[in-house]
Structure formats: C-alpha cells, structure tokens
Amino acid sequence: MALKIVKGSIDRMFDKNLQDLVRGIRNHKEDEAKYISTCIDEIKQELKQDNIAVKANAVCKLTYLQMLGYDVSWAAFNIVEVMSSSKFTYKRIGYLAASQCFHESTDVIMLTTNQIRKDLSSPNQYDTGVALTGLSCFVTPDLARDLANDIMTLMSHTKPYIRKKAVLIMYKVFLKYPESLRPAFPRLKEKLEDPDPGVQSAAVNVICELARRNPKNYLSLAPLFFKLMTSSTNNWVLIKIIKLFGALTPLEPRLGKKLIEPLTNLIHSTSAMSLLYECVNTVIAVLISLSSGMPNHSASIQLCVQKLRILIEDSDQNLKYLGLLAMSKILKTHPKSVQSHKDLILQCLDDKDESIRLRALDLLYGMVSKKNLMEIVKKLMLHVDKAEGTTYRDELLTKIIDICSQSNYQYITNFEWYISILVELTRLEGTRHGHLIASQMLDVAIRVKAIRAFAVAQMATLLDNAHLLTGNMQRNGICEVSYAAAWICGEFSEHLENPMQTLEAMLRPKVATLPGHIQAVYVQNAAKLFATVLKSQEGNTDSTAAQETSQLMIERLPLFVQSANLEVQERASCILQLVKYIQKLQQKDVEVAEEVSALFAGELNPVAPKAQKKVPVPEGLDLDAWINEPPSESESEDEQPKAIFTKEETKHSRPRHIEVDEKELARRREARKQEQANNPFYIKASPSSQKVYQDTPGVEHIPVVQIDLSVPLKVPGETQHQGLPMSDQYVKLEEERRQKERAEKKKKEKKKRKEKRSGRGKKHDSGPESEEDITPAHMVDIVTEEMPENALPSDDDDKDPNDPHKALDIDLDNLGEMAGRRPLADSEKLPVRSHRAVEAAKSPGEDGDAETVATQQPKKKSGKDKRDDKKKDKDKERKKSKDEKKKKKHKHEEKEEDLLRGEVHEPVVQSEGISQVAELPTSTSAEEAATVAAAEAPVAEVVSGAAQDSEPDEPKDTEMEETKSSKHKKKKQKKEKEEKEKKKKKRHHHHHRHSDGGGEESVQNGTVEEEEPLPSMSNYCLLAENSYIKMVYDIQGNLQDGSQVVVSVIFENKCDSFLKSMEFNVLDSLNSKLQRPEGSGPHDGLTVPFQLPPGVSNEARFVFTVQSIVMPQKLKGTLTFIVKNEESSTHEKLDFKLHFTCTSYLITTPCYSDAYAKLLESGDLKGSSLKLEGVNMPFHHLLARICFHHHFSVVERIDSCSSMYSRSIQGHHVCLLVKSSGQTVSIDAKCDEPTMLGNVLDEIKQTFSQC
Amino acid sequence: MIKAILIFNNHGKPRLIRFYQYFTEDMQQQIIRETFHLVSKRDDNVCNFLEGGSLIGGSDYKLIYRHYATLYFVFCVDSSESELGILDLIQVFVETLDKCFENVCELDLIFHMDKVHYILQEVVMGGMVLETNMNEIVAQVEVQNRMEKSEGGLSAAPARAVSAVKNMNLPEIPRNINIGDINIKVPSLSPF
Predict the structure, then answer these.
(1) Fold held by B2-148
(2) What is the ipTM for the molecules in this complex?
C-alpha cells in the first residue's frame, strides 16, 4: 500500500500540474490547439490511474481548459470521484470543477447526492463549506428535494461560516424545489436576527431576492425589516433592505409614509454614496406610491431632485449615470420637478460617455411638452449630425421618433414640421432604422388627414430624388423609406401636383435594384397613379396624353415582369395586361378612367394591432371543433407550400383594402370626393382651393399662404445650402404662428376682461406660455385605431410562464407569529432522509460498505424515489388545491376570528404515508444537535402559533358554557347552522397541521402570545444506553397496513470511536414480529444501514408486524456493534426492551363533529372513565399532551371541556370527553374495543403521572 | 443576483470565468468575447456601468466592471444589486487578491486560477454576495490554505520539489511574460 503511494507520487513528479499546463500553453502560442489536444490525451491517461492525487491534478487542469472553452463534460464521473475524496485539497478541486461544468442535465449529478450529504454533515466545517459552495452552482430539483432538510439543519449550525452559506443556498433550493419554501421560511426569518452580521446579511439577501419577485407575500415582514433598518449599521444590509422597501411600498402606501422620515434622515446623514443613492431611489418609489395621498411630499421630492442634481454634477461618471437613472424614475410621476433641470440634462447629451448620453436621452423622452418639443428635437438633430458611430446615431434616431410619436403624437403641434424631420432623417447613411422612419411616415399620412397633401408632396420629391436608391440595399436600410413614399404617393395620388412626373419616377429602371417587397409596392402604386393620371387627362380633349401614359406603362412594366421576386412579377404582369387592355379601349376612344380608378377606391382606416385578437367569439361558435374531420396525414404535406406563401405575405404587411359592397363603395367615393374638396391643400397647382379650410376652431387665422411661399418643396439635401434646413423653417413658422396666436388671445382676453371686469380674477397668466395655450397648427383629427365592437379592453398578461419565481409565489404570512391562516400541511413537509426499513430489510449489508457501493446505490434508489414521489406528489397536489379552495372561501371569516383568542390545537404527528415520513435530527455532532434543538424550539413555537387561528375559540357564551354533553352539542349545531359550517371547514385543516420538518417533534399547541408557551415535547423515549451508544425510539402505526408499525430508532454515538457493523435484532413474540428480508432466518439480525462517526447520530427504521393491537407488549432485543478506534476494535452489545404501547397503534385522524356525534349515538362503543387528580397545568397544555403523546385530535372544545378522537391502525374508534375543573381532570372514554380502551387510558394516566 | 463574473485581460484572454447560470462552453466563450468587445472600447474615464450585452441577461441586467492595469473585472448583475455596491465589491475582491497573493499581478491569476476561484468562493456564492468584510475573507482563505498544506504531506512534497525545479528554469519566464507594469494597482477609494 505504502509502496503504491510512493510510486504514485513519483509518477506524479512527471505529470504536468496546472502551472506546467499554463506555461506549456503559453509556450505554444502558434499551435495552441494541437498542444492542448495532447494535454487532454495525457489528462485522460491520468484519469485512468487509481491514485486520487493524480486524478485531482488532472481534474484541476481540466477546470483550466474549461475556461478556455473546452467541453470537459466527458470527465464528469472523474470529477465526482475527486469530489468524494476524503482529503480537503482534492475535494475542493473536485467541487470547483463540478461547479464550473455541471448543470441540470449532467447525468452523474444524481450520483452525488449521498456524497454531498456526507460532506454537509462532515465534522470539518470547510468540507461542509466547499460542498455548499459547489452545490449552490449545480443544484438540481432532485438534489434540492433530497438535501433541503440537511441544508435546513445547517442553517442552525454552530459556526456562522456554515450558517451564512446554508442560508444563502436556501434561495437556490427554493428556486429548484418551491415546496421547501414554506417549511423553511420560519427558520429563515429567524436568521434575520442572527447574532452574526454575516448570517444576518445572507438572510436579508435571500428574503430580498424572494420578495423582489413576489413582494406581497413578504409585507408582513415589514416591521421586522423596519427595525433592522433603523438599527443596522451594515451598509450592505441597509442597501438590501432599502431596496426591498422600494419593492414593498407600491403594495402598502402606509408603509411608505412611515419610511419617509428615516430615509430622509439617512439621506442627510450617510456618507456612503451607494446608500444615499438607494435611499433616494426608495423615497422616489414611496412618492410614486403616494403620488396623490400626501400633500406635503413636495419637500421630499425637492430633496431627492436636489441630491440627484449633486450626483449628476459630480465628476464621477458613475454617479452621474445613476443620478440620471434615478431622475428618470421621478420623471414618471413628477415631471415638473425634473423639467426644471432641463439644462443639466441637455448638457449631459454632450457627455463623452455614451451610457450617460443614452440615459439623458431617456430622460428627454419624458420631458418633452408641446412647448419644448421642437427645441429638444432640434438639439437632437444636431447631435445626429455630429454623432460618430452608427449605434449611437441609430439610438438618437429612434429616440427622436419615440419622443415625437409618444402617446399618439400628443406633443406635436405641427405635423408639417414632423414630416420634414422624418424626411431629414432619411439622409442618415447606414442606419438600420429605415423601416421605422417608413412606418412613421405611413402612420402620419394615414392618420392625420389634413397633412396628406403635404406628405404626398414631400414623398413625391423623395421619390424623384435618387439618394434613396443609391444607399445600401439591405433590408431595414434607408431604402425602406421609398416603400412608404411610393405607397403614400399612390394611395393619396389625388393630392399630387404632378402625378405624371411621379409615375415616371416610380418606373425608372433603377427601381429594380430595390428589395423585392419595395418593388412590389412600386408596381402596385404605379397602377394607382396611372388611374389618377388617366382621370385628370380624360377631361382633356386631346386623348394622346392619356395614350402616352399607357404607353409609358407598357414600356416600363416588362422590366418588373422579369423580376425574380414572385410578388413583383405577379403584380407587374397582372397590371401590364390590364394596361394593355386599357390601351386597346383608349384607342377605341372609350372612356375608361372612371372604371380604372374604381379599382383603387375605398377608405383606409388604421386597425389596432390587437383588434383581431379582441374580436369576441360569437355565442355558439366553438373554435376548437372540427369543421371537417381532420385530414389524413398525407395531406399535411400539401399544406406546407401554403404556409410559406402566407408567411411571405405577412412579412410585407401591406395595408389591405377593406372589402366593401358596391353601394358602400359608391357612397364612400362620394364622401371622398367631398372630402378632397374640403381638404386644406397647402401646396397645390391652383391656389384657388386654398381658401377652403376644415371648419375647425382656432385655425382660421393660420396664414397658410405663408407656408406655401417659404417652404420650397425640395429635398432637404438640396435645401441645406440655402440656409436653414427645412424643419428649422417650420420651427420658425411655428413660433411666428404661436406668437400671433398669443397676441390674438391677449387681445381677446383683454376684451373679455374689459367685458367682465367684475369677474373673479384671471384664469391664466398670459405672460409665460402654458401648455394649454398652444393650439396645434391644424386641428388634426388623429384617427384612432379601429377596434372590433365589444372588444375587451383588458390587457393580456404577458408573464413568462417559465419564470421560476412564479412557483415561489407562496403565501407565507401564516407562518408569521401574528396570523395563523394556514399551518404547514404534511404534504408540505420537507422530505427527510429516511432509511426505509423495508428497503433496508431487502438488502442488508449492501450499504455502508465500500464507497463504490455507496456511489452506485443512489442511482437505483433515486429512480424509485422519483416514482414514489410522483405518486405522492399527485395526491398532495389534489389535496392541496382542494384545501386552498376551501381556505379561500373562508378567508374573511377567519380574519374576523383573528380577534378572538385561539387556543386548542392538536399537533398532528401522523398522517398517511407514514413510512415515508420521518422526523429525525440529522445533526452531525452532539454539540450541533444541541444547537439544533435549541434553535428548533422557537421554530416550533412559530409553527404552533401559526396553527392557532385555524381552531378559533368559541365566543365565550354563557349558553355554551352550559352545554357540555355531546348530545347537547348536536342540538346546538342544529340551531346554529352557520356556526357549524364554519367549524366544519376549519376542521378540515386539522390533519394538515404538522410539525416542522426539522429534527424535533416538539410541536406544541396554540400558544397565543398571552398564554404561556408549552414545554417542548418529544415522542422519542429512551430505548437503551451505554457508554458507547444511546438509542431512542418512537413507534408509529401504518395506516395503510393494519398489521404494521414502524419503529424509528435514533442511534447516537456517544464515544470518540467509530461505530460500525451495527446489527439490530429482536426476539419475536407470537404477536409481534420484526420484518426481516426474505431468505433470512427468524433469528437473524438486521444490519443498520449506516456507520456512526464520533458524535454523530442517525436514524434507522424497522418494520414490525403485529396481530392483535389491544394489548401493549414488550419485545426483548439486542444491538451488536463494533467499536473501532485507531488502535483496536472491539465487539460490543447492548440489550434493550421495545415497548409497544396501545397508544402507538393509534393514528391521529381528524373527525367532524357531526360524524363524531353520530358515532357516539350509534351505541356500538363501550364506555370507561378515568379521573386524574392534581393535574397542575393549563387545559390547553393538557390537551396538547394527549394529542401529542397519544395521537388524538380535538373534535371540539368548549371552555374547559373537550371532545377528542383517534383511530387505531385496525380501525377501532376511540373517543374521549375531557373535562377539567380545578386540578381534577375527568376523562370519559368510549371505544369499540374495551381492552384496548383500558390500556390507552392507563397510558394516558401514566403520561400525566410523570409530570 | 450576480449572473456571471468574468476576468479577462486587455486582449480579451479569459483569466477567470464564473457563471451562475448554465451556458454551454461555446456560449460562454461568445459571452466573453462580446463582453470584452463592449468593455474594451470604453475609455477609462467613462462610467463603469453598461446595459447588458445581448447574449447574457437582457433588459434587467447590467454589466458593472472595473479596469485595473491589464485586467478587466466584469460582474453581470440584475437590478436587485446596488450598482455602487457591486463596484465596491469588486474593489474588495481585488484588494483581497492583493493581500492573498502579496502584490497581485496578472501572472498570479494566470498560474493560480484555482486559488482565485477559492477566494472568489468566499466572496460570492451561487450568485449572491456572501461576505464583504475583507479580513473575514482573507482569514477563511488562509485557514483553508493551511489545511491544504497540512494535508499535502508525502504525496505533494515531491511534486512541489519538481515544480520548484521547473521554475528554476528562470530565463524562460521573463522572455515569455512581460512582467512590466502589470501589477494591479489598487487605488484607494472613498469608503463604501
């Protein structure tokens, strides 16, 4: 053996270590890949060796290679091997490698469960620490489920180092296994007040992370956090808490009011910028949540804005950035206070830092008003020209468009200005937002009717100008604009000054270089233009012009007929044939214009994007029903080309004409003509129509002619050197217009004032221009998007269904001390590591042997676990949902009863599926166990506190005080039906009450704050003890099998030596037998499936079959084991007596009071009674004891009288009526098996005589 | 939550990567490249926050980084972390490295990636901040290093000897590695 080690280490001398590998790679710069591949070959060789040191070294190198991008998942098994090394050095290497390359689909992960569990309970805190760290990176749902309980135990570890790690990792566990949240929450909450600041910080961290996603569930923690906030000095903790409050305030404005003051104090006092910033942020959140409720919060806003200004003015770019970020939050609710800092923000646009510029841009978005829009956009346009780098320029472009188009063009007073801005933006080269500009043009032209003429004129110049065609021909490039231009010119061609010229421009050969979808629009709209041209020419006597137009079409269209793009080709050839036909008709002197333009008649209205979705399904229409039977599979192939086609079509998303019938068409045409006549044509060949305006108020005095003169209709590219770019001229015009308007208004106002001198004060000061003063240049009717009738206004909830945090939306309030809505149900208990006796019995000696066995075993086991769990889970789910429904129904009732004092709650220790559930302390050392126990007590209190309300006290009615017999009770129930209903539902929860998943069964009853708490109780009683080992045991019945009981024995190693090869044997009696694996003799012992290092305790379970359960009995047994220390190993044995009480055959079963009453009435039960003297404890303690130790549940309690129920595993009913007066307690009992009843009563007596 | 921690040098060579969310190796390399691309073109006097790359994160995520001499320390975090807090955390981490390696330089990170990981593990665990007190971090790291040394015993000694001999081949090192001024200078910052 020693030789082997020496040999191994000599071998290792020649292996490369990590440093050698790194050096090698650096020396082979030219052929790095080749070098690494030889290294990987070497590593593979090393991994084949037995020496763990060699393996660890190899794994360490693999971790480095992983960083360089090499997939090392093939070595996953070796990594597991290194992880399971007993040496910390190697273990750490293994866990590091695992944390770098394991993930949920790594299949060897399931082999690690036992290893990790072992490391978690290692006496060396660093082994535990390394395991926790590693686990935090690769925890899977399976691992989370299997290890949740172990980690929860670690949360109460003696070492703060482990505690904080355990607390942090719980968050990961919650994410992967949401069921663990409820049982673990009380302890997590407790850690908020841990004496160690690190642990406290970790707990705050986890709760903040949880609360961020589901804040409403954590509102009840607000007072606790408030206390922490005012007491803590740790900035990390403070920041986290303050951030959390930011998330909570929107849900509870009252909290916000309380927060303002301490936060303001912090803002004034702290020197840490990070804390200051978070405080400001939260104050903002508070103010937002209060926005209306508090009158005097302007001081707080002022303080925030002022502090933020300091941040923004700071030379530190980070502070500047954050200041702007926070500013944008204020902007949403208090734009006025931010707008006063416009100068500062505009200044930030000149910052050299792009992130800061972008932030400033964001702010501008919210700062615009009708008044300053033009000014701001002008400034942005300057930046567009200056900007280097297309990304920032594109960002500017989209921002300009965003700013202008926000809330349905709310701030635009002059659309001509906006169109010219859009046209100017087309000059941008290399932008990727051509599409955006195009859609804006389309949108404005369609929705703002008054602007169409102007838009059409601009678009026509755009089309005429070649610069759009010279740009790059990429999709989304600037050429997209020509899509919009062509469509606008075609659709609104009646506004065109010179349609012939535009038509010619649209049919230029160069157009063929445009992307297909744009060409298609060109072709189609050329046809529309053609119709318009024909119409204007037909009136003339000379028909040659019309024929020339047709000729032009016939000459140019063939180019498009040859297009490779289907859409273009199809449209072109269709239109070509049409034009040829028209030409024929023209030659015969037939008037065709009317009919040709009818092709394109019809009104266009924008449709809301969600309109289709919102069409309500008519009654009686089942969309899921087959219209025809589903086609056979072969047909599906035929559909594929169709799909491609439709996809293609939607991509172009051309606005479609709405189909209308003939009459409607004619009507609309009329209307359109009418409207055309009424439209304000700003630019038109004949100025005669200028005088016609839309009869809108406030527009009369707009000097339209002026625009005509001052704005030459040329592409800005050309106008630029004439002085101002076009949009600027509009700015000027607009200013003039406003001035005039103002003057006019003043006049009017003066008049008014003169008229009404007695009137009470002026409405607004006409000095500074207020928002309302500005009337838009044209009262544009911005057509709102069409929605189907009866459309539902609700917005769809777009939450990601895959969000892992959704599962963590768990109501935790009831776990608090105050409100006990819903205690932990047993279905919610953490699965506890249990050595299932049945399984152990089947394969004794298989476990706890060699390490290899240990690693292979879990595979088998986990498979089985899964199956079992799935089944179990299903049941649980069903139960849960049922329960929750009931709970909901009941919530408000329970709330009312909150006020009443709750009292009796039987802790229910047992339930279905007992064989799966085990309570055992999984602590690793005696010392630790002590802490666990200590820590457990308050937890238990919390749990029981939570239980209190589900069993509310009856109102102290004199009437009720008198009613003590069960018969009377029934009467009363009839009388008060409602009351009964309530109780019934509440009682339904009883069987869900369960002890905390931790090690102790010290569940106690309704400890209301004013009542004294219960002493801790445990059902585990001493089995036997010597200097080496201590055994305690508990017996539980098995509901599924009336002849089985499970004995859980906790073995605790009390000495400094290792205990192994433990064998548990019992001398069977006729009545009770230990279940042994098949094939073994009736006197063979059972191997305990684990070994015990010093100070460790563990639990094993053994199944016994019993025939008769009416009598208690004792079984003699022996435990043999080997005590092994460094020098020697000795065989030891310990005798014990297992006491099967009748109580242990009882199973806590809830019972409704009506069923209970029926049972008593049936007369099948035989009575017996018992009197206890000198019982000196509160009644609820008494009940708790009976419930806990004897597996009863309370059916009903009235004052100091209570009825209780339990059932044996073989179905015997046991009913108790417990009355207490002074120190005397009388118990009347009924049971269908008198012998058993007698024994149970004896045992109860025994319990109370002990205390 | 911290989603990832990346350390790479001025040329984009990774020195330590730590993802707290699974990505394939290829994706990890892409993210490093993208992050390097985003970070490296920024001046030293601009702010240290970047609204995340496209590969990692999304709208809720930010890149928070610091540039020390030849190395970039990049943390990818979501909105639950305080930006300035994370900046301070990076500082704490670097100062810890400085203490543990005694005047840390890029070479330390190159040759002792594993040790850097172990130090990081004491600072951040599973994407959540574990400890911010430098003395506590250093203390824990040192205890673990002592444990490793004490375990080393027989099997590690020869390897150490060999490694020492290999290192004796001195002329090779300066030739390949420009030690120059790659010392990470830890500027003293205002208290957190």
Answers:
(1) Beta-Lactamase (3.30.450)
(2) 0.88
